[in-house]
Design goal:
Length: 181
């Protein structure tokens, strides 16, 4: 049985409209150009190398394989304001099926307005309703704004654990993700 996350909630904006509806939906192939543009902004924001052909291929791979997870888009009216890659995983320790936020991006005009927290809060509720036992994510140590968002949304840093990765085919690209000491 295919379960998709679809949600609607209100975002209070401080500049033009008193209240706007944010909707979330699963991305489709027709969304690929805008997704790739947002991904490029996300990668360049942190100084990561960006390979457009590779990212286009990956977007289509996730869209075509729901077992991997869902590529979610967030919109106000019909304007896309961000995306999230929510991957599926399983953990004995955490009681079963878990969600893993691999990327969460909001366009610059929508940051700092409460959209991120509202998206995460509703996502947590919907995950519980669809049988997920926990939600995990990773965030760069130097991304203090995102860390504050996640902590305010109930996530905690595990001081006794480290995220460790083995990627032989992408070793040189992975090394570039680490900021200088």
């Amino acid at each position: 049985m295919k379960t998709e996350l679809v949600f609607i909630f209100a975002l209070k904006q401080y500049y033009t409209m008193p209240e706007s509806k944010i909707t979330g939906r699963v991305a489709t192939e027709k969304d690929q150009p805008e997704l790739t543009a947002m991904m490029e902004d996300f990668f360049l924001m942190f100084g990561y190398p960006f390979d457009r052909a590779l990212r286009n291929k990956q977007v289509l791979e996730v869209i075509g394989s729901p077992a991997f997870g869902q590529l979610l888009l967030f919109e106000i009216n019909t304007q896309i304001i961000g995306y999230m890659l929510l991957s599926n995983s399983y953990s004995f320790e955490f009681g079963g099926k878990i969600g893993y936020i691999d990327e969460f991006y909001l366009k610059p005009d929508f940051r700092g307005l409460g959209a991120g927290r509202q998206i995460l809060d509703l996502l947590k509720t919907q995950l519980e309703e669809t049988g997920f036992k926990s939600l995990r994510l990773e965030v760069e140590n130097y991304n203090k704004q995102a860390i504050r968002l996640y902590e305010k949304s109930g996530f905690s840093i595990h001081s006794t654990r480290h995220l460790m990765t083995y990627m032989p085919s992408l070793k040189s690209e992975t090394d570039e993700h680490d900021p200088p000491e």
